[in-house]
Write a structure and sequence with these properties.
Blueprint: E1 7-18, E2 30-37, H1 38-43, E3 51-57, E4 70-74, E5 90-96, E6 102-109, E7 114-118, E8 128-131, E9 138-148
Parallel strand pairs: 1-3
Antiparallel strand pairs: 1-2, 3-4, 4-9, 5-6, 5-9, 6-7, 7-8
Length: 152
Amino acid sequence: MIKGEDFVTVPVYTATASAGPGSRNDTDEVERHLLFRRDLMRGLNVSLGHSRLLRAKGDSMHRVIDDGDLMMIDSPRNELPLSSERRRRSIRVIRDDKDGDIRVKWLDRAEGSTIVVSSEDGRAHPPKALRANNGNHHSLVGHVVWWGRSER
């Protein structure tokens, strides 16, 4: 039996996050809502009411996140792990504040204030180092905590 209190709604936005050079999104509208089990959300350590779903666009994260996959972004988790943490690498959505492009990438904390942005396919899409306060204008949108795909 399905009980309403066992589920939470998560908005699906029309915006996309590029698994490639970047996606410019002119609109950021809610397309629909999907239901997720409350216990799953707790298990993912998701901030209820602050998560959203975006589609991936592109192939640079192929083998992990494919073109068209739906990704759950936990917006309050928009800081990088500390360099002392064992698992420093994580998939995040990042925004280029100059042009508004949104990307989904692996982010690693390197030495000091350096962040390494990399794709799953490192040969075709080499990693890039971003240094805070060095002309880079990027902000973290959130942490990708879940993704899924349907048969196309």
